[in-house]
Amino acid sequence: MAEAIEEYHGSRPIKRLCQEQEKDSNIRKESDGHSNISRAKMTIPVMELPITFHNLNYYIDTPPEMLKQGYPTKRLQLLNNITGALRPGVLSALMGVSGAGKTTLLDVLAGRKTGGYIEGDIRIGGYPKVQETFVRILGYCEQADIHSPQLTVEESVTYSAWLRLPSHVDKKTRYEFVAEVLETVELDQIKDVLVGTPQKNGLSMEQRKRLTIAVELVSNPSVILMDEPTTGLDTRSAAIVIRAVKNICKTGRTVVCTIHQPSTEIFEAFDELILMKNGGKIIYNGPIGERSSKKISGVSKVKSNCNPAAWMMDVTSTSMEVQHNMDFAILYDKSSQHRDIIELEEKLSIPIPNSEILSFSHRFPRDGWIQLKACLWKQNLTYWRSPEYNLRRIMLTVISALVYGVLFWKRAKILNDEQDLFNVFGAMYLGSTTIGSYNHQSIIPFSTTERIVMYREKFAGMYSSWSYSFAQAAIEIPYVFIQVVLYTLIIYPSIGYYWTTHKFIWFFYTTFCSSLSYIYVGLLLVSLTPNVQVATILASFFNTMQTLFSGFILPAPQIPKWWVWLYYLTPTSWTLNALLTSQYGNIKKEVRAFGETKSVSIFLNDYFGFHKDKLSLVAAVLIAFPFVLIILFSFSIEKFNFQKR
């Protein structure tokens, strides 16, 4: 193998592998100059736990396209007999070509895979991994930096600490720990900056990477897994991120990162390397050595002015295997390096004497009330700093109320025939459905943005679906209240409805419940669909069904019996019932309608099936709809996750 490698190394130009060496050297000096922050101990001690994995395999069902092309098996293997150990205080890198299985291995270790088949043994601190327990001591930094754009850096980290640190950590200690974490990842100077939206405003990509790390670090995890923390960053920004990662590793945590084509300075920041090839196989697992100087028998020495990571990828490429008729995975399996790893894995797979398997008495670090309180705190900040969402629907409501008020000016008491009746009834119907449509059309794109953040936070075990959903529902109430107050104060006197306390309160109550129902339908649709486009299409279908079965176009007595159940399941039908009955259910004025003379109250009963004696039932149903919808919303976010991994 030595001869083959040396021949290959000597026959290829090394200039392209070495272009960044001088720049990397300068950045290394700069990085060393900034690494004077003490990392001995933090306010909250960390539990040092190694991870071991033995003969780890991962399969997925072979895609139909591959089966049609003659692929021989029904399962596709993505990880192949992976064995290794990750230790506290040792910064490990997972490296390999695209498709080698780096992120797959990381996700399998983290327990984030939503499909496929896993075989093998994973142990934490010598004990078999229990996912519900492991997630409490795990920090997982995704490649995509997912944060709520309306929070500041400090608020994002504080929120994570509030929900992820155990209850015995008091408020003072929690805030001290947050400050330490911000200093560790060097975000303390910009802690009051809004996170913002990528490539639009707020934090730079490199700062967002460090915030991702901080949000996980503040949970005081024993293990931190990072998926390509330097992807998309220039060399200088990547060096800043890796410096923060090294600071974290020095606190005694087990840290592993996937990396792809790192610079020399980034590569040499790691202590150990797991190098993978296509097919999910390991071809090297061991120390990197100072300045990448670890000597391996059979491999030529990398030249001093070369990027060792790029050189390594070149000399272990598939083309090299074909050229020299060798399989580096087999060579590694027969090497002393592999035997050393097996010995280390076996040693760390044995629990420390007198130790106990890690367990927690509760599923979540904080109780349900604290979860709800924290979620409300975050939602309040998010809504208050989202004027484009709230002002838009409020302004549209005010404009619509003014238009309807002018269009139906003082028509509420002009009741002579069926045309007059349907004019005022139509004003009520159109007003309530228009506000509702504004609400769920606005909430769908807004809540979709937050949904991906919710997926990350739920996986981290920050809160239950019930706490999140009820906080989301509760934060809408004051904004809908303001919206309905403005609408009622404009529309009620403009159209000239009856000025009695009873009728006014009924009008406000009905419109408020209807508006909430539309909002919660929007939330439910977002939780049930994979993207905003599908949710919007379903919202349009919902509006159509609301119109057809509201009882206005076709009243309940005329709906076929096999469809009438949809009438009772439609919130708008109960809204129309409450609005018309509360306003006109006791009006004795006679009108000429469809060739007959009868009072308005009798017309409501004969034509729509509305009667004032049933108003209490209608009121109960109106308030029940929002509760039922939010329960369904909570259930759906608990059961459905459209992030497939």
Automatic annotation (TrEMBL):
Spans traversing the lipid bilayer: 391-409, 421-438, 470-492, 504-528, 534-555, 562-580, 615-635
SMART domains: AAA (SM00382)
Pfam family, one: ABC2_membrane_7
Residue span(s) of domain ABC transporter: 51-304
Keyword Transmembrane in annotation: yes
InterPro entries assigned to the protein according to its UniProt record, in alphabetical order: AAA+_ATPase (IPR003593), ABC2_TM (IPR013525), ABC_transporter-like_ATP-bd (IPR003439), ABCG_dom (IPR043926), ABCG_PDR_2 (IPR034003), P-loop_NTPase (IPR027417)
Main location: membrane
Gene3D superfamilies per the UniProt record, alphabetical: P-loop containing nucleotide triphosphate hydrolases (3.40.50.300)
GO MF assignments: ABC-type transporter activity; ATP binding; ATP hydrolysis activity
Domain of life: Eukaryota
Lipid bilayer topology: Multi-pass membrane protein
UniProt family annotation: Belongs to the ABC transporter superfamily. ABCG family. PDR (TC 3.A.1.205) subfamily.
The protein's name in its UniProt record: ABC transporter domain-containing protein
Native organism: Oryza glumipatula
